[in-house]
Amino acid sequence: MPSSYQAPSRKDKMQKKTRSQTSTTNTGTETATVSRLLAGKGKDVFSVRPQNTLLEAAELLRDKRIGALVVKDAAGKLQGILSERDIVRRLAETPGKTLSQNVEDIMTRRVEVCAPDDALISVLRKMTEGRFRHMPVVEEDAVVGIVTIGDVVNYRLSELEYESLQLKQLIVG
């Protein structure tokens, strides 16, 4: 036996054990919501009016490096949504005559919206089933944010990585 070895004593067992984690912290079930996503992403919403031209909308999409614009009237009420896809489709339908057309001519008028308290999984389901990538967040008739399918997927991936780390730490102790 090495000379530095000391057999365990009663005093060793009396030492207080500390744990950095508990079953509660490792198995928490907080629901991921739109408001939690927006807290990390920000609430910037870029919009155009129905009377703006598609050229103006395309320039704003380019300058802000985004894929969709909320369409609001003069009072700020949601009228529709315009995406890059909408513009591209119209370019194919009316070559050379598209950019002078108004946003209201091609915007989607029936807009699916979500609320800040909505679960991200339900938002993702709506986007997948409806085959669209952008959803305005509305609270008390005001647009307070916009989420994209990429935002939701990235948020969920980060959440899964965190859950995986928690499980590893729970197993290792």
TrEMBL record:
Residues 20-33 have a biased composition (Low complexity). Residues 39-98, 107-164 form the CBS domain. Residues 1-33 are annotated as: Disordered. Keywords: CBS domain. Pfam families: CBS (PF00571). PROSITE patterns: CBS. CDD domains: CBS_pair_bac_euk (cd04623). This is CBS domain-containing protein. It comes from Roseibium denhamense.
